[in-house]
Amino acid sequence: MATSKKQGNTYSVTAGLDIGNGYTKGRVDVGGTVYPVDIPSAMAYTSAARLAQPVSEESLSDLANSLDATVLSPAIPSVDRGRVLFGKRAITSKWDEIQFQIDSPVPKSRESLSVMLILDAIVSQVIAVAGFKGTLPTDIEVDAKLALALPIDDYLGHHTEYRESLMREPHRVIVHNFGTDVEVKTTFSDVVVVAEGVAALAALKNRGEDFLDKVVSFERASGATFDAAYTGEALAAAQNIVGIDIGEGTTNFAVFTNGTIDTDNSKSINRGFGTILDEVLDLLRQTDSGIPADSRGALEKILLSEPTLPKQQRIKARVEKELQKVIPTFVNRVTKTFSNVWRSVGAQVEVVYIYGGGASFVRDALVPRISQATESDGMETPVICLDSSYSRVLNADGLFRAAENL
Fold first, then answer.
1. Residue 100: which of 286, 278, 285, 355 has the closest Cα?
2. Distances from the Cα of 150 to the Cαs of 107, 267, 281, 330, 381, in angstroms?
3. CB-CB contact of 120 with 64 (8 Å)
4. 22: closest CA among 82, 91, 73, 77?
5. Which residues, other chains included, contact 23 with Cβ-Cβ below 8 Å and sequence gap of 6+?
6. 176 and 214 share a domain?
7. CA 114, CA 151: separation in Å to the nearest integer?
């Protein structure tokens, strides 16, 4: 395992980050300790200072969600550089929040926000580690190894350019949270960029036969009827796989042929669960529903809630009703793209996985359609939908493992 070494004010970091349209997830290794990352993919430009926080456990423990910093990076156009707030603080501040626009024609590899979020995750954790050691230095240098993912189409067109933009020169981040500014200079000594969905499948296989046995048992308990020969051992050995990764703004169809990513047949579409939630928001606004939700995140929070009081139960029921109206259109689009992929590779595919943050929400509608699309001579290929509670972090797990191997 690649561990982090620190000498004085210099830190060596290993990071695997899944920069999603809704959330940035991952792991950062500093000083041999691995820290989780799970923050909203949001920032807000600010020109105002506020009273500095003391360097304390409270101010350091979730710094990535409250970072106030000036970001000066060669990977960011000069027009986008400036002083910004990150994560939850960006969302709750009075300043205009910036998130990825899921219908934007600009690829994520060229969005300044993606670089900003990378630096937020790494710099915040390094400062937290330095702060917990004692007096926070005013200058810190970071040498980082990093693994990232891009939507498949973005990956095919821009992954080399994206990697090179991160490795050109040091990235300066001046942190303003505390009484004295702290400047962190980050240099990426190595960066690997993979296609979204690919890292998740690698992480799934890495979890081993026992985990996959539990997945298979759950699927059968939920009504799946695929052959008894499909065990955790058989799935762990599978070399020909299609993964349907349902993210916030994209759905990626990752194809593995003979254990290797098949870029010729892998595809992505610019629709994800966030697209569905945007359509639900539009429906609620058109009907003047009074539902207290003005963002995709607020809607998702309602859908994930388990209300006990009548008012909250009615709110959730109304959101679920509108959700069911828009899911079929999404399922049709995913099934159509999957069918195109299947025509090219279906004969040798051993298993299809559906995963990602949106998987659980569309499971009931999508799994039967994908199963039907795989049917040949009365035989269906197993279609396994992984619960979003853990599959939303599979890409991040796989990326961290890739970073460790750099």
1. 278
2. 9, 12, 27, 21, 28
3. yes
4. 91
5. 38, 39, 40, 41, 248, 357, 392
6. no
7. 13
List the beta bridge partners of residue 50: none
333/339 Cα distance (integer angstroms): 10
Q: Are 56 and 158 in contact (CB under 8 A)?
A: no
Helical segments of 147-272, H only: 152-167, 198-206, 208-221, 232-237
Dist. CA 176–CA 362, nearest whole Å: 42
Distance separating alpha carbons of residues 200 and 355, to the nearest angstrom: 9
- Total number of domains constituting the chain: 2
Written as six digits, the tokens of 22 are 């809704």
Return d(Cα 325, Cα 342) in angstroms, integer: 27
| Range(s) of the domain holding residue 212 | 208-277+284-391
pLDDT averages per 10-residue partition of the chain, 406 residues: 53 95 93 92 82 68 91 92 91 85 84 96 94 85 96 91 93 91 95 91 88 89 84 93 92 93 92 92 82 79 88 90 94 97 94 93 94 82 89 89 94
182-195/139-150 β-pairing = parallel
> Rounded to an integer, what distance in angstroms lies between the CA atom of residue 369 and that of residue 340?
14
- Collapsed DSSP state (helix, strand, coil) of residue 80: helix
Q: How far is the C-alpha of 93 from the C-alpha of 152, rounded, in Å? A: 34
Residues 122 and 263 in one domain: no
Contacts of 40 (CB under 8 A, 6+ apart): 22, 23, 24, 65, 87, 88, 90, 91, 99, 297
CA distances from 116 to 31, 43, 85, 91, 240 (A): 23, 8, 10, 15, 36
In whole angstroms, what is the distance from residue 398 CA to residue 103 CA? 27
The pTM score is: 0.87
Contacts of 55 (CB under 8 A, 6+ apart): 131, 136, 178
Rg (CA), the chain: 22
Point out the domain boundary residue: 195, 223, 255: 195
Q: What does the alpha-carbon distance between residue 317 and residue 233 come to, in Å, rounded to a whole number?
A: 40
